[in-house]
Write a structure and sequence with these properties.
The protein is of the alpha+beta class. It is about 20% helix and about 30% strand. A 7-stranded antiparallel β-sheet has the order 1-3-4-5-9-10-2, with no helix packed on it. Strands 6-7-8 form a 3-stranded antiparallel β-sheet, with no helix packed on it. Bound molecules: FE2/S2 (inorganic) cluster.
Length: about 190
């Protein structure tokens, strides 16, 4: 009967050694790299996952700010600091200020909420009771009570925020920051 290979035995031996060595390298590489990739995936996971920048709101991301009864009936804006637990990729910081808003109560208990960040370059606007306007101290942007710009400095009106009032009369705001220096309102 013919042998299965035409090579002589002394030539088949080195080929077997080469295959065994290559197999060992591949298996060794897999054993080494698998935990490395697992560790890398674990480290990168918080960066790749999109998560809200704070915790503490309701299921829709609204934060309780004040009571309807605490807002002036004549629509005068009041400023509120919103507090929540700030979170980044790895850390959580308890009870931090996440932003400030102006709230107005309109007839019919309608709420208007403004992010108080100036859409020009990001300073904070201040409500001026005497002129009933919002003014920015940085470059003199001015806004009417309804948030419309009064000069050509800001690229758009004041940014409004979503709000809701629950049956107990508590006012909730969905806080959001927006891009500055652009005409179109866009979340950051
Ligand atoms: S940042 Fe408000 S006017 Fe420039």
């Amino acid at each position: 009967m013919e042998p299965s290979s035409s090579l002589p035995t002394e030539q088949r031996a080195p080929r077997r050694s080469f295959l065994a060595a290559a197999g060992s390298i591949v298996i060794g590489g897999l054993i080494t790299l698998t935990p490395l990739f697992a560790g890398l995936a674990f480290f990168m996971d918080p960066l790749l996952r999109r998560r809200a920048p704070f915790k503490g709101g309701d299921a829709e991301g609204f934060l309780a700010v004040t009571n309807l009864s605490d807002l002036p009936e004549d629509g005068t804006p009041l400023r509120f600091v919103l507090r929540a637990d700030k979170v980044d990729a790895w850390n959580e910081f308890k009870d931090q200020s996440i932003g400030t808003v102006y709230l107005r109560k309109l007839p019919g208990n309608q709420i208007v909420a403004f992010n108080d960040t100036c859409p020009h370059l990001g300073c904070k606007v201040d409500y001026q009771e005497a002129s009933k306007t919002f003014l920015c101290p940085c470059h003199a942007s001015a806004f009417q009570l309804d948030g419309e710009p009064m000069n050509k400095i800001p690229p758009r009106r004041l940014d409004t925020l979503e709000s809701k009032t629950d049956p107990d009369g508590k006012v909730w705001i969905k806080y959001q920051d927006f891009q500055c220096g652009v005409e179109k309102k866009g979340a950051v």
